[in-house]
Amino acid sequence: MIDLHCHLLPGVDDGAPDLESALELAQLAVDNGIRRAVLTPHVHPGRYENTLASLVPVFEGFAGAVADARIPLELALAGEVRVSPEVLPMIADGDVPFLGEWEGKPVVLLELPHSHIPPGSDKLVAWLVSRGIQPMIAHPERNKDVMRRYDKIAPFIDAGCLFQVTAMSVAGAFGEGAHRRALELLEAGVVTILASDAHNSKHRPPALEAGRLAAAKVLGEEESWALVRERPRRLSESKFAATGTTSAA
Ligand SMILES: [Fe+2]
What we know:
Helix content is 42%, strand content 16%. It is of the alpha/beta class. Helix 9 packs across helix 10. It is globular. The mean pLDDT is 95. Residues 5, 7, 80, 138, 197 line the site of fe (ii) ion.
């Protein structure tokens, strides 16, 4: 399986705090059946001041440590970009790592705050689309506005966004509200991929298999694999094509 959203990169956000924990998470991912991971640290001005330039050396160090530890996990670097006015100039200047490509367009993984959908989010999405950038919304099923009213997601569907649902939401580990919305989004056929959004080994591990199994019960085996393997592979192909092992491109 291929995980396109996880916080394994050590010491850059609220994911793995140090190299030891990050290597433990990498091994757990492999144990869960994950063979490739695109690392997506928070890019959140004012909270996590990460940029493409600041993340690349950390990524290269970590990729080397994973190889030295002989953990069979191929790695690439992207970011989870917080919806905020501050990220517009960053994206325009190429300071934000993309998740991959979809139908020839670079994909940006966008994070809404959990509490609500900020006014202007639709404008940010429209601005990205107008620049030929494909937005993917991270875990919409965990957003409180979407939990209250399912139709709050409609403008993002209409704007052509892709959607990443958290695997453990489908398995029910993020509560009944997120579980119900995850299943509704799956049944509506708008979920592009499942991803782990792993932060730590205890409560938010790098796990896709439980979510895939839960998705298979609703949509069947074939679509469950498309959610964790075929579409993630297609999305991230350009990131892994260069060396076949690791890439910060
Ligand atoms: Fe995340």
